[in-house]
Amino acid sequence: SLRCLQCCPNSQADLDGFPYAVSSSADDFFRCLRPAKKGSQKTKKEETKKKGTTRRRPLMSKPVDDVYLTWLYKRPSYDVEEAVGMLKKFQELDFTNPRQYVYINVFLDMELKKKKRVEQFSSTVLLPYRFTDETNKVLVFTENEQEAEIARENGAAVVGGLELIKWILEDEIQVDAYVAVPEIMPKLIPLRNKLKRKYPNTKRNSLGRDIPQMLKLYKEGLHYSVKDEDVVETRIARV
């Protein structure tokens, strides 16, 4: 059996120049091959913490050359009017479609006092100027025939009551949004887990008596949600 001289310095003599020594048992040799204990791993982590990370030098404001490393300089910022002008200019230079969408990334401050954070959320908003001809398909839950007729007149894709639950659970009906009147809500509980955030709710203005207003919001409204903890990515216009 062999024993490592590096781990067991008390070993005597080597064997023909090789860094191994004869031992009475194999246990000592295989003990050297075992992984290090947790304590030694902790000490390594502590050593790396003490060393610390190397700091980057502060970014410079403006490049003086035509060719430069972008990560050495601060990203330029422009006001809205200048940024829109640049988008139009680039569109002409690139020969791209002038009807292409303009996207925006909004970075939110989600921090609260006492080290708490705002929970991620989603919502729908009506913009003052519509930039798309697309309309969402909206389903209206109601068992009142007069309300059902109002919903159809205002462009509801699907109108109905309890008979729709089975079709929704089986994915036979798929729409972009669901709205409902208060009276039918106790009967829609089987759909809560299926619809999740699309489940009619007063906070999202998808539950109420003003069917035309709810339909307008969810047919023409812009839906947005917070992603990656604090970022909203959505389109806001056309070039």
TrEMBL record:
Region (Disordered) residue spans: 37-57
Pfam families in alphabetical order: Ribosomal_L1
InterPro entries according to UniProt: Ribosomal_uL1-like (IPR023674), Ribosomal_uL1/biogenesis (IPR028364), Ribosomal_uL1_3-a/b-sand (IPR016095)
One of the record's GO cellular component terms: ribosome
UniProt keyword annotations, A-Z: Mitochondrion, Ribonucleoprotein, Ribosomal protein, Transit peptide
Location within or outside the cell: Mitochondrion
Classification via Gene3D superfamilies: 3.40.50.790
SUPFAM superfamilies: Ribosomal protein L1
Acetylation as UniProt keyword: no
PANTHER family referenced in this protein's UniProt entry, alphabetically: 54S RIBOSOMAL PROTEIN L1, MITOCHONDRIAL, LARGE RIBOSOMAL SUBUNIT PROTEIN UL1M
Family, as annotated: Belongs to the universal ribosomal protein uL1 family.
Protein name as it appears in the record: Large ribosomal subunit protein uL1m
